[in-house]
Structure formats: structure tokens, C-alpha cells
Recover the amino acids of this structure.
């Protein structure tokens, strides 16, 4: 039986179809979850996709956090459900306090879309075991509010406990502190990522296929479990 | 050193999509009874020198040309 | 050509006033503010003067309205006629010319819906159809660049949705004033943010466009937005209201006082009201609402819940109701009080003229209304039944129980005035054409040639556009195979391997020198760009940006451009499926260079075989396809180095263009092309620079004859291709069979752009000037 | 009907790129002597009923949970 990975659609989600495609390419079954439902439909993992939920009005992710399904998700994540928040999904995870810190306006004040080189810093989270620690990959970034900020204690804590999942190389596209592109929670089941691995799963349409590892990692883990 | 506050709001006749989105979301978040939300910007500006007429005029000019877009926004200015 | 849905605010100068007419002489009857200008009242006060001139209506047009109605119009009726008969809704100046697109249309089995609908639809095979269209939002983008550009994107996307399609990509063709003028920074910054802010938030990849700078656009930027959508042929929707008893539903955003500066004239003139609230002439967009509206519409189409649908663009409710009714059973009753308002003080005339964005109107069978409203609720999209279809042949609207509109809808929608405006060759054209580029000193030494290559590569029009395009999402939806800076955008459709390619091109300088040729050259280039990726060109959309049609010189340019485009489409076998006309692009009495922007759609049988532009395989052979003549009139070289515009543009050669395309398409299909890049602005020099930088590899080329001409001429129907040595023979044979001249240029490799025996430029140096130019100006 | 103003500003230790961009742009536009600009948000909120303690508390709750993100922002609330 293949793993079932839920993809939540909020009003204004944009990359939900892409996330579902990536799940499929990782040989798992994508399950659409609608923000207003009260049930996770028994999925084995959840992706919060990129986009502009609620138009990014107020603050990116601020309104989506209150979706009925999020209450269920927060509880399940605390119990160890693998959760990946991509871009807007990362913002929602921070707003929900599943991950520390916040994502603010890019320091360049422009939306930035580019093929971005990253280094995978932690290859032990639920979503990164198919990478090597220190591996460099090229994955698109595209965001307006991707500047990761946190207070110095939180940053120290993230750094010292190995909770930086990925870091920008060459160019820091949004001014993130410590070049942070992604982080995880203490248990490593919840990962937030600014770049879009779901746009790097097919050589034809992406920058590479180097994003597929995020999806295959979790699928392997689920199948093994 | 003088400190000014400039508050910029959309003109009432201009669609405030942000404010409306917040207002539409509120009941779902358990906040009933909110009839309107408007969202604008607030600037805190510190300038060298005293908070005199001249400084106020300079900040007003700034607000007119840069902080607010007179085509769709209005602003209020006060010293603090 | 869509004659109904130009989204652009009307900017017609108001015509000669009505002073001295019989009506103006009559004493106006005093009216209480609360009173409604009903049909009954209009009958009782036949001589009450209405401010038709202020609304841009001519005396004879107003007289025709009176004749149609057999009485004076009510102020609400006047609102309807004045917007529906305006230039941007009725195409009254352009219509007689645009007919050629239909009359000369080449035979095409692919055309499912031609001109006249919101957008044309073509059959691309394998059970898929594609709809696409380009539209201008020039004037609003100068007044408020962010909102102008944003609502431009929003408007064209709604046009595509209203055909029943899922929008899948956008493009933007932009023209600004001189790059170093401070106002250009304001306009460019706002426009690019607006295009990105709206398109990114909608989740539509931006796959291409143009950024052009020229003094003539300083106070009149051009913002042309294109959207393409995909649908099943059986899912095509139309803007019609058939079936008496069917309900008319307005859904989407509330109606506010957007873009109705003109309407307050009506209210204040007819009703002596103390003071009308300020009515903004700018429209403001809400991309989030449009995203909800998109998903909502697609679900509604999936469940087959509508019999007709129309987006609300310019002229809002006036346009949607008259057109739906005119194209359907013929009658409609609307209760204007039911229109959900963002501002409760709006008067009926203002509701009718409001250009509030993110609204649609649907015609729904009574049994399906409940389900329709449920889907809207799911997406948080407000929806209201505002009326129903009748068989009375009349469009009737009530306001607080009184009838305020009672007209035959066709008279407003289809029977607008048609002008045969006088035209004549612009007085300065002969002189301009006589002043050819022959007198311009050419670079004489290898060093001069080298510097010219760099100069062009770093000039604003030829420089790398990443500063703009990196603000656009090109990955979303996961089907983008090629996007900027490639020659054309290419997206996969369905589950592949099929795809569609799109390019937009225009050259105002060429068109200024010869509008007939200029329009053809724009088509020629877009056609070539599409073919360069390996796609077969199939259909055309166009946006015609011109000065005032009341200027006979401009009207001549327009007539010539349309004729040129229609002739070229016929010659190349690609029909025009729709488009848009934007007049009055001028500063004072100085019009912009005539700027027809042409979009070409092509189909790709297998996107895995797309041909990118980048040189990235060491040792591949470079071949030049096509013939180079010394052609510098209107060229980038003359423009950049001498700010010179004169002479004649490159010779049009459509047969050569078609032949070149056939070689490129065949080469792609056979998989024998490693890279291809067309030659256009800046000539061979610029093409090689771009392909080298894109792939990160240099090249060495031989230019034995006249290196200046070979490097910088802008002759049409040319492309450079990189092929593996083992494919050289096959590609040469393909070219020869098609009658396309082919010549071995050199080899890919190294880290410099080198012309053997003349000069060499390290890629790092090229990269710096090419990529650094726009950030230095606007960063 | 009661009317409240909520002003949301970034905490001083959080980088305010928007404010900084304004500050950087000012000299270019001929405005000298500005030492600091900070940019925040301003909300005008209308709620049903009187502007009493209970209403204030409801709006405070809204501000804390929705309008401001306590990780990076502070807010001030006042009735108008
Ligand atoms: N405003 C824009 N939006 C999106 N893409 C753009 C824009 N301007 C330029 N581009 C892209 O940059 C590339 C170079 O543009 P251009 O030199 O005009 O192309 P071409 O000469 O092939 O027509 C193309 O891929 C074009 O689509
Ligand atoms: Mg090209």
C-alpha cells in the first residue's frame, strides 16, 4: 500500500497541484484536503503548499492559520505527523507557532523568482533523509515575504541543535538571517522551507530534479514504518 | 530631534481589499460583530532639529510625494 | 477582434459641446435629488438637457439615441449608450478596418471561435482547445502604474475565463519612456510590481513579454497583457443570455465607485445634487478575489451550471447586460437595487458605469441556481440574482420600482456608430524615409566593432531583462517548459507531451517608418520566435496601440498597419483570433510611434523536443539560417549609437519566414537541433551574446564578408542554430530543401565571444554589461 | 457602533526593510536630515454595540491573535 500524503488547499493556495504532482512522482498517493474540513482523512503526512493564502493580506499565512483544518493539523504535528510547509506553507507554520520565528518582507522589497543554490544542512528530518548532509541542490525560490527572522536566542537554539534544514548559497534572495532557507521543529517531523522543491521534480519543467528528495524521503519513511 | 507620525489610509472610495479580506475572515475566527476593517500604513519619522513649523512642512512634503500616493490615499500628519 | 471587452478606461476627449442645440436653450425643470429619472419622467420632460457631450457623445450620436427610443433617454439609458458607443467599447473608428482580419482570414480548421467573442479559441488537437488574447491598459498604468497594470492583467484573465477556459499563463508587453528619466522609474517600478503582484497572486506563470524604452512613450507607457487558457472544445462558453425565465446572476466583488469619474457628470447634471462623493477614475484590483472567482467559475463550468457568461470589464453592468441580452433571446429584466454595492450612495447611472474589478455575470437555468450559489459560497464569492431573461426584445431595468431603462439591447451593443475617419500620409513621412541610415558612420576597426557589440548588449532595449522578469513567478502550475529569456514561452498542456508556445513582438520604430511593413515585421518576428522553439505557428492575437484616430496621419498609420497585418496573416496562414485597439496614445498632439503588438500561438507536438536558446555543448557547430542584407533602417544599432530613426525598415519576406519556420520545426521534430535562437533586434551580434550567456559557453565565428553588416543587420527570416557535428549534414539538407540559405558560422566553446581574426570578448565582460544595465538604472 | 484604532509596529530589534527603503530614498528626493523611518500598519475597526470594556477586550484579542504577530510585532489599541 502506498503512502497517502495530504495537500491542503486554502483559498489562494497556488502550488497545491504541483505538490500533488511531486507526491505522485515520489510514488505516493496525494490526497486533497480542503481548509474548511475538520478532518485529515487519515493521511500519513501533510504538505502545506505555496501560494498567497487569503491574498497574503494582513501578513502571509496569518489568516490561513485559523482554518478549521489547521487545528487538527497542529495537534497531529505535535504527535509526530510529518508536515512540510513550502513558502506560504512555511509562513502558515510559523504563524501557527509550530515553527519558531517569522517570515517578513524580502529586504529587497521585490518579489524574487530565481533558480537558487542551497545546501542541505540537516539530512535527518522526516523530509530530508534522501539527501546527504552538506549536499548542494538547485531549487527555485519565489516569494515576497521570505526573510526569515527570529530573536537571537531562537537563532542560537536553531543553529546549535541542527535545526537549520537548508541554507542559501551564492545569493541570499530575501535577506533571511543566517541565510536560512528552511528549519524544522525539535522532533524533525515538521519542516518549513522557503524554496519550492515541488518545482524541481521534473527536468522538463523545473530547474532540476533535485527537489524530489523531499518527497521521496517522507515516502520511504512512511513505507518503512 | 523631532518625531512625527504619518498615517496613510486609502481614500474611502477606493477598494480596500486587505481590510475586506480581514473583515470577511473574522467571523470564521470567532470574532462576530465587526462591521468594517480598514487597513493602512503608519510611519514613524525622526528628523534632525526642532519640531518646528519648518520640520513639519518638510515631513508634509515627504508624505505627499513619497509616503502616500495621492491618487488613491490620504494621510494625516502629527508631531509626537 | 473583440468588440466588447476592451478593459481600458475610456479616454476619448469629449466632443464638441452641445451649446446652441435646441435642448440647451430649454429651461431645465428643477428636480428633487431623491427623484429618479424614470422612463415615465423622460417622456414627460422631453426637452430636459442631458450632459451627453461631457460623456463623450457627439450631437449626431445623441440624436440617434433619441430616434431609437422615440424620446429622450433617461440618464441611466444615456449612461449605457455613452459607454457602449465609446471608442473603446464600440470600436467605431477601427471597425471598418478590422473587418479585413475576417475578410482575409486564411482557411483554418483550427479556428473554433473567431473574432467577436471575448477571445478566440483554436483547436490544438488531442481533444484540447486554447484561447488567448492580448489587451492594453495603457492610460490607467500611467495614472496609477501599480493598479493600472494589475487590473490590466485581471481584466484579460477574466476574458479568458469567460470563454470557459482555465487560464494557464500570462505575458506582458511593456513600453516605457527614456530609461534615465525619473518618471520612467516610477512607471516601470509600479507597472512591474502590478503585473507581478496580480499574476503571481493568481498563480499564473508569466512566460514572456517585452520591455522597450523609447522617448515617445514618456508620458504614454504601453502596458499590454496577454492571457492564455486551456479548455475542452465542448466546454466553450459564450456571452449569451438565452431562454426566457433563466436567471441573471452577478457574482464576484461588490460594485463600488471605481473608474466612474465620468458618471458623476450625469448625476450632478441631471439632479442638482448638493455634492457627489468623489468618484475615482482609477480602478483597484483584488487578485485574491480573482483567484477565488477563477476557481469558482471552473467548478461551475465543470458542473455545467451556466448557459451564458460574460466578464465585467469596461462599462461593467451596462456592457454585460446589453451584450448578453443582445446575443441571446433578446430581452432581460434587471432590478438594479439588487446589485450588491460597496458604497451604498451609488446612483443607478454609476452602478451601470462602474468598472469595479473581479465581477462576472452568468445566465443560469432556474433549477441550477441553488447549486450555482452553493459553489459560490464554497469559494467565498458573493453572488446575487439580479434579474432574468425575457423574450420581450427589451432590456428593462428598475430602480426602487420605477423603470429607468427600457431599450432594445442590440442598439447599444451592436449598432453603435461606425466612422470612416479621414486619413492621409503623415506630412513628415517622406522626409523621414529619405533620411536613411546610410549616412551614419560605421565602426571601422575591430576595436570599434568590439565596442559596438558591448554597447548594444548593455543598451536598455537589448540588456538582460531579469530585473523585470525575476519579479514574476514562472514555475507555478508546473508546466512551464520554456520561459524568459527564451524566444517564446512554452507550456505543456494536459498531461503532455503536447504543448503551446507563445511570443509577443512589436517594433514602433519600424512601424513609424512604414506601418504596413511594421505590422508585418512584428508578426514575422513573433512567428519566428515561436518556430524557433520547435512549435508550429497556428494563430494570432494583436493589440494595436496608436495615437488619436481623429488625426488623419495616425488614422493612415492605423489603416496601413491593419492592412499589413491582415495581408501577412493571410500569407502565413495564421488567422487573427482577437485583439484590442488602444487609441489616443499621445502627448499633446504628438502621437506615440504606431505600435502594433502581435502575439503568435504555436503548437508543439512533443515538448520534450523543445529547442532552447542556450549554447551549452562544447564543440557543437553553429549554422546561420537565412539571408543577411545590409538593413539598418530603424535598427537598434542606429537607435543606440546615433538615436537615429530614418530610412526604411528591413524588407518583409514572409515566404522566407515560412520556409525558415518549416526548417526549425522539422529540425526540432527530428531532434537534430541542440539550440536555436532567432535574429532580430541587434542582429547576429545580440543573438550570439544571448545564447552564449544563457548557456555559459562562448563561441568562435567567422564573418568573412562584411562583419559590420553580418553582426548588426536586422534582416528578417534568420536564426542561428547549434547542432552536433553528426547532425550538420541533415540540418543543411533540411534548409536546402526548404530553400533557406544556410552557412557554417563557427563553433560553440570556450569562455569568450570571438569573431575570428577580429576581436574576442570574455563572457564575464559581456555578462557584466548585459546583466548590469537594468539594475543600474532601476535597482 | 464603536470605532477602534490598532497600530502595529515591528519590534525595534526586527529589521524594518520597508522603513529603511523609505529612509534611503528620501535624500535622493531632496529630503535631508531624516534619521530614522519605521513603517507599520494601522487598522480602523468598527464593531457593533457600545465602545465599552467588553468591546475593547474583544478588539484586543483580535489584535493579539490576528492583527499583530507577537513574535515580531507590538501593537497599540485605542478607542476613537
Ligand atoms: N515584460 C516582460 N515580461 C516577461 N518576459 C519578458 C518581458 N520582457 C522581456 N521578456 C522576455 O525576455 C526575453 C528577451 O526579450 P526580447 O529580446 O524582446 O525577445 P525577442 O527578441 O526574442 O522577441 C524573452 O524571453 C521575453 O519573453
Ligand atoms: Mg527572439
Amino acid at each position: 500500500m502506498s503512502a497517502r500524503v495530504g495537500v491542503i488547499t486554502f483559498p489562494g493556495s497556488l502550488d497545491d497541484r504541483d505538490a500533488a504532482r511531486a507526491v505522485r512522482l515520489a510514488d505516493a498517493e496525494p490526497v486533497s484536503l480542503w481548509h474548511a474540513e475538520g478532518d485529515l482523512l487519515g493521511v500519513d503526512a501533510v504538505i502545506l503548499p505555496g501560494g498567497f493564502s487569503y491574498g497574503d493580506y494582513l501578513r502571509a499565512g496569518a489568516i490561513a492559520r485559523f482554518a478549521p483544518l489547521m487545528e487538527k493539523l497542529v495537534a497531529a504535528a505535535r504527535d509526530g505527523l510529518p508536515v512540510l510547509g513550502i513558502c506560504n506553507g512555511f509562513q502558515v507554520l510559523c504563524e501557527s507557532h509550530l515553527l519558531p520565528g517569522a517570515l517578513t518582507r524580502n529586504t529587497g522589497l521585490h518579489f524574487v523568482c530565481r533558480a537558487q543554490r542551497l545546501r542541505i544542512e540537516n539530512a535527518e528530518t522526516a523530509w530530508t533523509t534522501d539527501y546527504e548532509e552538506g549536499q548542494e541542490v538547485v531549487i527555485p525560490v519565489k516569494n515576497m515575504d521570505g526573510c526569515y527572522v527570529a530573536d537571537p536566542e531562537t537563532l542560537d537554539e536553531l543553529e546549535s541543535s541542527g535545526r537549520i534544514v537548508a541554507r542559501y548559497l551564492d545569493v541570499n534572495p530575501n535577506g533571511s538571517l543566517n541565510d536560512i532557507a528552511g528549519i524544522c521543529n525539535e522532533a524533525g517531523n515538521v519542516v518549513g522551507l522557503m524554496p519550492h522543491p515541488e518545482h524541481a521534480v521534473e527536468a522538463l519543467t523545473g530547474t532540476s530534479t533535485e527537489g524530489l528528495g523531499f518527497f521521496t524521503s517522507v515516502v520511504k519513511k512512511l513505507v518503512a514504518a | 530631534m523631532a518625531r512625527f507620525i504619518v498615517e496613510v489610509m486609502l481614500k474611502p472610495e477606493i477598494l480596500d481589499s486587505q481590510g475586506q479580506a480581514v473583515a470577511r475572515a473574522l467571523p470564521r475566527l470567532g470574532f462576530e460583530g465587526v462591521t468594517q476593517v480598514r487597513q493602512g500604513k503608519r510611519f514613524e519619522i525622526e528628523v534632525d532639529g526642532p519640531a518646528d513649523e519648518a520640520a513639519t512642512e518638510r515631513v508634509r512634503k515627504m508624505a505627499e510625494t513619497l509616503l502616500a500616493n495621492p491618487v488613491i490615499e490620504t494621510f494625516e500628519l502629527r508631531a509626537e | 477582434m473583440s468588440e466588447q471587452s476592451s478593459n481600458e478606461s475610456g479616454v476619448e476627449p469629449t466632443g464638441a459641446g452641445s451649446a446652441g442645440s435646441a435642448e440647451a436653450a430649454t429651461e431645465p425643470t428643477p428636480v428633487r435629488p431623491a427623484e429618479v429619472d424614470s422612463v415615465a419622467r423622460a417622456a414627460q420632460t422631453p426637452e430636459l438637457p442631458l450632459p451627453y457631450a461631457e460623456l463623450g457623445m457627439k450631437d449626431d450620436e445623441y440624436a440617434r439615441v433619441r430616434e431609437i427610443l422615440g424620446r429622450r433617454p433617461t440618464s441611466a439609458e444615456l449612461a449605457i449608450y455613452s459607454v457602449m458607443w465609446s471608442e473603446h467599447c464600440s470600436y467605431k473608428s477601427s471597425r471598418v478596418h478590422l473587418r479585413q482580419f475576417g475578410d482575409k482570414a486564411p482557411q483554418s480548421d483550427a479556428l473554433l471561435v473567431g473574432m467577436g467573442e471575448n477571445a478566440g479559441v483554436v483547436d490544438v488537437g488531442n481533444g484540447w482547445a486554447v484561447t488567448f488574447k492580448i489587451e492594453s491598459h495603457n492610460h490607467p498604468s500611467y495614472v496609477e502604474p501599480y493598479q493600472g497594470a494589475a487590473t490590466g492583467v485581471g481584466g484579460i484573465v477574466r476574458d479568458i475565463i469567460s470563454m470557459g477556459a482555465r487560464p494557464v499563463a500570462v505575458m506582458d508587453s511593456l513600453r516605457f519612456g527614456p530609461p534615465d528619466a525619473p518618471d520612467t522609474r516610477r512607471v516601470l517600478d509600479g507597472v512591474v510590481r502590478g503585473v507581478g503582484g496580480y499574476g503571481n497572486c493568481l498563480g499564473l506563470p508569466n512566460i514572456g513579454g517585452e520591455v522597450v524604452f523609447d522617448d515617445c512613450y514618456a508620458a504614454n507607457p504601453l502596458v499590454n497583457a496577454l492571457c492564455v487558457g486551456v479548455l475542452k472544445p465542448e466546454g466553450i462558453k459564450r456571452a449569451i443570455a438565452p431562454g426566457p425565465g433563466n436567471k441573471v446572476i452577478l457574482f464576484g466583488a461588490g460594485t463600488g465607485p471605481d473608474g466612474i469619474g465620468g458618471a458623476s457628470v450625469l448625476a450632478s447634471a441631471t439632479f442638482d445634487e448638493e455634492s457627489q462623493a468623489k468618484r475615482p477614475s482609477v480602478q483597484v484590483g483584488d487578485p485574491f478575489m480573482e483567484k477565488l472567482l477563477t476557481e469558482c467559475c471552473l467548478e461551475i463550468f465543470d458542473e455545467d451550471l451556466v448557459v451564458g457568461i460574460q466578464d465585467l470589464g469596461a462599462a461593467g453592468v451596462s456592457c454585460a447586460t446589453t451584450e448578453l441580452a443582445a446575443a441571446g433571446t433578446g430581452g432581460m429584466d434587471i432590478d438594479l437595487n439588487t446589485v450588491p454595492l460597496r458604497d451604498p450612495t451609488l446612483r443607478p447611472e454609476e452602478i451601470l458605469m462602474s468598472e469595479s474589478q473581479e465581477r462576472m455575470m452568468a445566465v443560469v437555468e432556474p433549477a441550477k441556481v441553488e447549486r450555482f450559489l452553493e459553489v459560490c459560497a464554497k469559494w467565498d464569492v458573493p453572488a446575487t440574482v439580479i434579474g432574468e431573461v425575457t423574450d420581450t426584445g427589451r432590456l428593462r431595468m428598475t430602480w426602487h420600482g420605477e423603470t429607468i431603462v427600457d431599450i432594445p439591447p442590440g442598439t447599444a451593443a451592436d449598432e453603435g456608430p461606425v466612422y470612416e475617419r479621414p486619413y492621409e500620409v503623415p506630412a513628415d513621412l517622406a522626409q523621414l524615409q529619405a533620411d536613411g541610415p546610410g549616412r551614419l558612420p560605421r565602426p571601422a576597426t575591430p576595436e570599434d566593432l568590439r565596442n559596438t557589440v558591448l554597447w548594444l548588449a548593455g543598451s536598455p532595449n537589448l540588456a538582460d531583462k531579469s530585473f523585470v522578469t525575476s519579479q514574476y513567478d514562472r514555475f507555478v502550475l508546473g508546466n512551464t517548459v520554456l520561459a524568459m529569456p527564451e524566444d517564446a514561452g512554452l507550456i505543456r498542456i494536459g498531461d503532455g507531451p503536447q504543448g503551446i508556445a507563445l511570443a509577443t513582438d512589436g517594433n514602433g520604430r519600424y512601424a513609424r517608418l512604414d506601418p504596413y511593413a511594421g505590422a508585418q515585421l512584428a508578426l514575422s518576428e513573433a512567428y519566428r520566435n515561436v518556430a524557433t522553439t520547435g512549435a508550429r505557428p497556428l494563430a494570432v492575437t494583436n493589440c494595436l496601440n496608436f495615437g488619436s484616430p481623429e488625426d488623419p496621419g495616425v488614422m493612415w498609420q492605423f489603416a496601413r498597419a491593419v492592412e499589413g497585418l491582415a495581408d501577412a496573416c493571410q500569407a502565413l496562414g495564421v488567422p487573427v483570433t482577437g485583439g484590442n485597439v488602444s487609441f489616443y496614445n499621445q502627448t499633446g498632439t504628438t502621437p506615440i510611434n504606431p505600435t502594433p503588438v502581435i502575439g503568435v500561438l504555436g503548437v508543439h507536438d512533443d515538448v520534450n523536443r523543445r529547442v532552447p536558446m542556450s549554447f551549452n555543448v562544447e564543440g557543437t557547430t553553429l549554422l546561420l539560417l537565412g539571408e543577411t542584407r545590409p538593413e539598418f533602417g530603424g535598427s537598434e544599432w542606429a537607435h543606440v549609437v546615433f538615436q537615429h530613426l530614418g530610412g526604411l525598415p528591413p524588407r518583409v519576406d514572409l515566404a522566407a519566414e515560412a520556409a525558415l519556420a518549416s526548417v526549425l520545426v522539422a529540425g526540432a521534430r527530428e531532434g537534430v537541433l541542440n539550440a536555436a535562437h532567432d535574429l532580430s533586434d541587434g542582429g547576429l551580434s545580440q543573438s550570439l551574446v544571448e545564447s552564449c550567456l544563457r548557456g555559459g559557453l562562448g563561441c568562435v565565428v567567422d564573418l568573412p564578408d562584411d562583419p559590420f553588416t553580418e553582426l548588426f543587420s536586422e534582416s528578417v527570416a534568420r536564426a542561428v542554430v547549434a547542432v552536433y557535428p553528426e547532425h550538420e549534414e541533415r540540418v543543411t539538407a533540411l534548409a536546402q530543401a526548404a530553400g533557406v540559405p544556410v552557412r557554417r558560422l563557427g563553433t560553440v566553446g570556450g569562455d569568450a565571444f570571438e569573431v575570428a581574426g577580429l576581436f574576442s570578448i570574455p563572457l564575464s565582460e559581456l555578462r557584466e554589461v548585459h546583466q548590469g544595465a537594468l539594475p543600474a538604472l532601476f535597482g
About this structure: DSSP finds 27 helices and 28 strands in chain C. The CA atoms of residues 6 and 583 of chain C lie 11 Å apart. The pocket of adenosine-5'-diphosphate (ligand 1) is lined by residues C 172, 174, 206, 208-211, 465, 468-469, 484-487, 505, 529, 680-681 (CB under 6 Å). Confidence is low (pLDDT under 50) at residues 1-33, 269-277 of chain C.
